[in-house]
TrEMBL record:
Gene that encodes it: UPK2
Keywords, alphabetical: Membrane, Signal, Transmembrane, Transmembrane helix
GO cellular component: apical plasma membrane
Membrane-traversing stretches: 150-174
Organism: Vombatus ursinus
Keyword Membrane tagged: yes
Signal peptide per UniProt: 1-19
GO BP: epithelial cell differentiation
InterPro entries according to UniProt: Uroplakin-2
UniProt protein name: Uroplakin 2
Length: 178
């Protein structure tokens, strides 16, 4: 029993020093706009002003890239996507994320934070994220087909422009007679 006390004390002290936080991958909810980038949630609000190091490495490699920045202040809850204003016709959202750029398309990465604030250093969990594969332009569904309304408006504007030009020529001809 006496050997158990120092072990429990050591576990309690280790637990107090490990103030880790979690980040998560939201694949499917918010996909990157480009095949070469990822969006990573920012560290929690209690680390505002701290020096953050975001380490990114490919799944099968041991060495990676580190991005350093200062944690931005919080304005309310720090969700990856937060609704700023919502009405019946539209919704305004704010994206609170760090964008990793110049990555290899169709590749899996491990992403984790290390934030230093004062004398304390906090680490996040390691999250596996993947960039989108690059696709040929021909396979993209752009959805830019002409609708019937667009054709009608184009025809009406063309006829109106023709009548305007004819009226201008007639006005010039009548003005030159006098």
């Amino acid at each position: 029993m006496s050997f158990l006390m120092p072990t429990l004390l050591l576990l309690v002290l280790l637990d107090l020093g490990a103030a880790d936080f979690n980040i998560s991958s939201l694949s499917g909810l918010l996909s990157p706009a480009l095949a070469e980038s990822l969006l990573v949630a920012l560290p929690p609000c209690h680390l505002t002003g701290g020096k953050a190091s975001l380490s990114v490495r490919r799944v099968n490699e041991t060495k990676g890239i580190t991005h350093n920045f200062t944690v931005t202040p919080c304005r309310g809850r720090r969700d990856l996507v937060s609704v700023v204003y919502s009405s019946g016709s539209f919704t305004v959202t704010r994206l609170n994320a760090y964008q990793l750029t110049n990555l290899v398309p169709g590749t899996s990465y491990f992403v984790s934070y290390s934030v230093e604030k004062g004398n304390a250093v906090e680490h996040s969990n390691r999250v596996r994220m993947a960039t989108l594969p690059r696709r040929k332009v021909e396979t993209l569904g752009l959805g830019m087909a002409r609708t019937g309304g667009m054709i009608v408006i184009t025809v009406l504007l063309s006829v109106a422009m023709f009548l305007l030009v004819v009226g201008f020529i007639v006005a010039l001809a009548l003005g030159a007679r006098k």
